[in-house]
Structures are given as structure tokens and as C-alpha cells.
Design a protein that fits this description.
The protein has six helices and nine strands, in the order H-H-E-E-E-E-E-E-E-E-H-E-H-H-H. With 288 residues, it is an alpha+beta fold. Helix 1 packs antiparallel against helix 5 and helix 5 packs antiparallel against helix 6.
Length: 288
């Protein structure tokens, strides 16, 4: 029978199966808590201790938080998190996050360069300034006046389809990996259920053994009572023999009584042996 700690192993494997879409190094704070979102990939929970600084991605009006090693974007008044080929959206950088279909993802997020984190930072923006001015920047095309930003916009326009195809391929690969992990988890759950059934069956067998052991104990007590009753009857027979001797009974009757007493003794001895055998079997059952 498989050990009970198999279930702990399954639970541990499920907790460790959380990695980011574009960065493999997720902090331990994310792994501590998981939240289930619909029937899709469980999004690792993360909370910023303070408002994060923001950086604009050159060539777009998409912003991201550079101080975490997984992807959190801001665009058009919403926050977005990609994970294992799925997308989640929130109105606040600390969530709560809600799954959205691929058609609801802004095309500017899909068309980001696959290695957008390696692009030079145009400017690191404090969150207070960002939350106050991002609408004005987008309305007035603030970043279009930056030369480095314009260069990457032009390159995005030239290579946008190629980047989009590469990024969608990455999303599909992550989604296939997640589906494979889900199948493995379902198989582990089935094995865990099988282990639970085997454990329950062992418990039932143990209870049955206990009931049989109690039954054997009762029978052993009954044998002891019968043995004690036989001893009393033998003592009474001896008393009658002594009384017959005193009264001068016939020798042949006395001899016959003696033989009966001897037979009773043998019967008692045999009962004792059976009682000892029952004790040994009971001890052996308890050890098993």
C-alpha cells in the first residue's frame, strides 16, 4: 500500500508549479499563496507593499513595473497580467484579478517585442506622478516627442507582425505546458483517491480484526468459567468419595468413582491445554 505522504507530495508539487510567463524567477512571496481564477491557470498572488514605480515601454503607451520579475502591465486605465498563455485584468495593481479572453486583450500588449524588458528605460516614473498624468500623456501624445521612444515605435510598425507571431507562439507553448501539468495533477488526484480507498479498506479490515479479537476474548472468558465449574464439580466428587469411604461404601463403587474422577482430571487438563493454546493465538493476533 502506498504511503500517506504521497498526498503531501502531490500538494507540494502543485504549489511549486507556478512560474511567470516571461521570467522563470518568481519570488517566494508569490508561491506562498495561490488563488483559483475560474477554470483557468491559478494566478500566483502578489501584493505590492507600496505603490510601484512605472516605466513606459518604448514605442507604446504600455507601462510596466520594473521592480518585480514577472509581468504586470498598465494600459488604457487597466492593469494586465499574462500567465501561462492566459490573461487577467484588474482595476488596481494589487488586484483582484479576473480572467479575460484573448479577444479582450489590447493589441498593443500582444504586439510588444518578445524581449521588451531589454529595451532601454525612457524614464522611471513615480507612481503618484504616473497616476496623475498618464491620461494627459496619452491624450497629448507626450511620449511621441521622445526620440528613443519614436525609434522603437517605428521599429514596432515594421516588425509588429513578426513580434506578434513570436509572442503568440510563446503564449501557446506556455498554455500547452500548463494543460500537460493539469493532466498530471488529475492523474495524481486519481492515485490519491485510490490510496484513500485502500486506507479505508485497511481500516475496515482492522475493525473486523478487532471485533474478532473481542469475540475470541469472550470465548476465552467462557472457557475459563467452564474450567472453574469443572474444578468445583471435581472437588464435590472428591468430597463424596471421602464421604463414601467414611460410610463404608462398596469397594467397586469407590473404584468406579475414582476412575470417573481420573477422567474428570484428564478432561480438566485437556481444557487447560486448550485454554493455553487459545491464549497463545490471542497474543499472536494482537501482535499481527
Amino acid at each position: 500500500m502506498k504511503r500517506k505522504n504521497f498526498g503531501l507530495f502531490v500538494a507540494g508539487a502543485a504549489m511549486l508549479a507556478v512560474t511567470g510567463l516571461s521570467s522563470p524567477n518568481i519570488s517566494s512571496a508569490e508561491i506562498d499563496i495561490n488563488i483559483g481564477v475560474g477554470l483557468y491557470a491559478p494566478l500566483p498572488a502578489y501584493s505590492f507593499a507600496s505603490a510601484p514605480s512605472m516605466v513606459v515601454i518604448p514605442g507604446s503607451y504600455v507601462y510596466y513595473t520594473p521592480d518585480v520579475d514577472f509581468d504586470i502591465f498598465f494600459y488604457g486605465g487597466h492593469w494586465y497580467r499574462p500567465y501561462r498563455g492566459y490573461w487577467y485584468r484588474s482595476s488596481f495593481y494589487n488586484g483582484p484579478w479576473r480572467y479575460i479572453g484573448s479577444r479582450s486583450v489590447p493589441r498593443f500588449l500582444i504586439q510588444l517585442p518578445p524581449r521588451w524588458r531589454d529595451l532601454p528605460h525612457i524614464e522611471r516614473i513615480p507612481y503618484d506622478r504616473f497616476s496623475r498624468d498618464w491620461r494627459t500623456w496619452e491624450r497629448n501624445k507626450y511620449w511621441d516627442r521622445n526620440q528613443g521612444w519614436r525609434e522603437w515605435r517605428d521599429r514596432r510598425n515594421r516588425e509588429g507582425r513578426l513580434w506578434e507571431r513570436e509572442r503568440r507562439t510563446e503564449f501557446d507553448r506556455n498554455r500547452r505546458e500548463w494543460e500537460k501539468e493539469r493532466k498530471e495533477q488529475r492523474r495524481d488526484r486519481k492515485e490519491l483517491q485510490q490510496d484513500k480507498r485502500e486506507i479505508q479498506r485497511d481500516k475496515n479490515e482492522l475493525q473486523q480484526d478487532r471485533r474478532e479479537s473481542l469475540k475470541d476474548q469472550k470465548e476465552l472468558l467462557q472457557d475459563k468459567k467452564e474450567s472453574q465449574r469443572s474444578r468445583k464439580e471435581l472437588q464435590e466428587d472428591r468430597k463424596e468419595l471421602q464421604r463414601d469411604k467414611r460410610e463404608g461404601a462398596d469397594k467397586r463403587e469407590i473404584q468406579r468413582d475414582r476412575k470417573e474422577i481420573q477422567q474428570d482430571r484428564k478432561e480438566i487438563q485437556r481444557n487447560r491445554q486448550e485454554l493455553q493454546q487459545d491464549k497463545k493465538e490471542l497474543q499472536r493476533d494482537k501482535r499481527d
